[in-house]
Amino acid sequence: MKSNEKKMGIVLLDMDGLDYFDLSQKKVFPFNFSLKLISDLEIINRNELETQMFLFINYYKIQPVPLIILLTADVCFELPITESNETNFENIVNNFLVSIPFEETAHKIYKQPKGYLLVAANKDLIDIFKYIFTKMGFTMEAVVPSSIVGINVKTIDAAAAEFIMAKFNQLKDQSLISAEVRVREKKVEEKNIGGVKRVFLLISLFLILLSFLLYLLYLQSSSSKKTPPQSNRKLSYHSANIT
Questions:
Q1: What are 75-112's pLDDT values in tens digits?
Q2: Residues 78, 169: one domain?
Q3: Measured at the alpha carbon of residue 154, what is the angle toward residues 150 and 155, in degrees to the nearest 5?
Q4: Residues 188, 46 contacting (CB under 8 angstroms)
Q5: For the domain that residue 80 is a member of, what is the CATH number?
Q6: Residue 163 in contact with residue 12, Cβ under 8 Å?
Q7: Could you give the C-alpha distances from 49 to 31, 32, 38, 55, 86, in angstroms and in order?
Q8: Which superkingdom is the protein from (predicted)?
Q9: Do 123 and 40 belong to one domain?
Q10: pTM beyond 0.85, yes or no
Q11: What is the rounded distance in angstroms from the CA atom of residue 122 to the CA atom of residue 104?
């Protein structure tokens, strides 16, 4: 294994938990999900999950490294497609994605020796783990279904890790997400923070405009008080001369 590959980690994400394989130590560190954290692939308590993951990483003294996340078959929804007609193919894909019980999915179509394989997963689940790992200093290189790795990955050991790292570049191309998540990353809390910033910006802009308007009214009021009523006297004088 190359030295740069030793500075990487592999996460096997399953319905009931995850296994973190440290390539430098060649050790597996398990983390089990309680039903209070994740149930049926839905995040129940994001804040508690983040706290538990932080404790998990610190307890095992896992150093931040580039990561590959493998999704087990229990985490993914998969559909083999052999249809050659383009219209029918699109209908099959759309109908399948609509049937998945998540608000938003991360999905990809993989070319197979015979036909194609459509794979989808809960995007919210992926996004939250991306966010948590990234917040702890890790970088996400790829998120791929284990079914396209080439071996039946149910657990991570040294042999499986060697095989996966040998296909590293290929797996990056087959990722369900963009490899450059440091640019595209849509962090879960970032949306809320951005919304709060926009509200404060609008309030600040409103206060500035209101202050400017009050200042103009003040100037106008001051100007009218200082100007003597000379025009009326002149008008009366001229009027008297005319008559």
A1: 999 999 999 999 999 999 999 999 999 999 999 999 99
A2: yes
A3: 110
A4: yes
A5: 3.30.420
A6: no
A7: 11, 11, 8, 10, 42
A8: Bacteria
A9: yes
A10: no
A11: 7
